[in-house]
Write a structure and sequence with these properties.
Elements: H1 2-25, H2 78-92, H3 121-133, H4 144-159, H5 175-180, H6 184-197, H7 207-223, H8 238-254, H9 261-272, H10 291-319, H11 330-336, H12 340-360, H13 363-366, H14 374-389, H15 394-408, H16 425-436, H17 442-449
């Protein structure tokens, strides 16, 4: 009897395992709309000055003649949805009374209780971005109240900062600062406000205040920029601080903030210089000796320019402006209409992006997943966002592989934590949720990378 009863149990177990596996491998069915964690269309949204998402997350831009093929957007696998729900339920409980979230100090990494540490802007910004990406706004969504409190905390930090400062907090020695850089708070806060204002209509009562905060952060980043394009106050992996500062300037510019073009170019050039296309060598002296940190930053900072090159050359081939088999090269870009210096710069970005993205996804580079610190989680996030901004179909393979790994290392209570360096469960959980839900932000990321074609 015991043996006979064991057989159906074994069959059921095997069937469940197969279904779970297929749910990760099959990103979307032809009959299914992409699943995006955004609020449903609501007639009250207009009155609340919230911009509703496009149906099905299909992106269309005034810069391009055609909308994005809907196959670029993946459905969220069931196990990922469950993982997100568990992670978000844990994360919102970590909010402090002042609306912020904290990672704790580098000196006391043994303290993992989120309510036993001080709130800091960097961690709060990561949580805020995760809440936004998972469909919450200042008025709508299950956790809109949590997001609003976090936003008020960040606005208070920015508005209360001294004139001429290069960071928005007097806190020192946080886990995030020690590992990424002393001024990481302002870079991540700028990124948060860029993401937030993108979701606010011009008439929204918070739009002007948030734009002012964004411009304040941009000015701080530009004041802290050094002659090589990096940001002052390197931490253990300072290249990541500079990479996030470059990302923040790029995102802020897309939202109409007061970004100096020379400062943005310098920041991008610094990231690209960490990767040598000719040799495949990676400069890791400011990346704590870790290849992943350097190449993820290089791919992220060159994605927008690489996409411009790809789209412009394809368009020129179709129109007959260049030969149908014209390669991507400095000469081809000159034929399209760029100056020599512009063509050289864009061609470098194109080559850096395509080489760095390969290394960033190499199994030998990402090995160790499951024994990572928050820096690794951030690097994976940068790689994924770079692929989306670059309109690179390779993002789908990255998404399936990375989400599968993340789900497998989630803690029983729904959180994630680092095993070295940045160990904070709040910071790591927020970053993990940003990775898992990146497919919800396709429109926003693609809009950031959109380019105008030249006549």
């Amino acid at each position: 009897m015991k043996r006979n009863s064991f057989i159906p149990i074994a069959l059921l177990t095997a069937t469940f395992a197969i279904v779970l596996f297929v749910s990760f491998r099959q990103a979307r069915s032809t009959a299914q709309e992409p699943m995006c964690h955004v609020p449903a269309a609501d007639p009250e949204l207009a009155a609340q000055h919230v911009q509703p998402p496009a149906k099905g997350c299909v992106f269309k831009t005034i810069y391009e003649g055609e909308g994005l093929d809907s196959s670029f957007v993946l459905a969220t696998p069931g196990p990922v949805l469950l993982s997100e729900e568990r992670g978000l339920a844990w994360l919102v409980k970590a909010q402090a009374n002042n609306g912020g979230f904290g990672s704790g100090t580098h000196a006391r990494q043994d303290i993992i209780d989120p309510h036993a540490v001080s709130a800091d802007p960097a961690t709060t910004s990561m949580v805020g971005m995760a809440l936004l990406r998972m469909g919450n706004t200042l008025e709508n969504g299950e956790h809109s109240a949590t997001l609003k409190k976090a936003t008020e905390y960040l606005l208070g930090q920015v508005e209360g900062s001294p004139k001429g400062a290069i960071n928005i907090t007097a806190l020192q020695g946080t886990q995030i600062q020690s590992k990424l850089g002393a001024n990481i708070d302002v870079a991540l806060t700028a990124q948060y406000f860029s993401n937030l204002v993108a979701k606010l209509s011009e008439q929204h009562p918070m739009k002007l205040r948030c734009m002012r905060a964004l411009n304040t952060c941009v000015a701080m980043i530009q004041r802290s920029q050094q002659s090589d394009g990096s940001v002052q106050g390197d931490g253990w992996a300072g290249v990541l601080q500079s990479s996030f500062a470059a990302n923040a300037l790029e995102s802020a510019k897309a939202q109409g903030a007061e970004v100096d073009d020379e400062s943005l170019d310098l920041a991008r050039d610094y990231q690209k210089a960490n990767f040598d296309v000719g040799t495949g060598g990676v400069a890791t002296d400011r990346a704590a000796g870790v290849t992943l940190y350097a190449v993820s930053g290089s791919s992220r900072s060159s994605a927008m320019e690489a996409r411009e090159v790809s789209e412009v050359v394809v368009q020129a081939r179709k129109s007959g402006k260049v030969k149908k088999d014209a390669p991507v090269s400095v000469e081809t870009l000159e034929e399209v209409g760029y100056t020599r210096s512009e063509a050289e710069k864009l061609n470098t970005a194109y080559n850096v992006y395509n080489s760095a993205k390969q290394q960033a996804q190499d199994e030998r580079v990402i090995s160790g997943f499951g024994n990572n610190g928050g820096e690794e989680f951030l690097s994976f996030l940068q790689t994924g966002e770079a692929l989306v901004i670059g309109k690179d179909d390779g993002w789908k393979n990255w998404y399936q592989q990375t989400t599968g790994r993340l789900v497998s290392i989630q803690n029983q209570d729904g959180s994630w934590n680092g095993h070295h360096c940045i160990t904070s469960p709040v910071f790591c959980t927020a970053t993990s949720l940003l990775i898992l839900s990146v497919n919800n932000d396709i429109e926003h990321l693609l809009a950031q990378g959109a380019v105008k074609y030249r006549n």
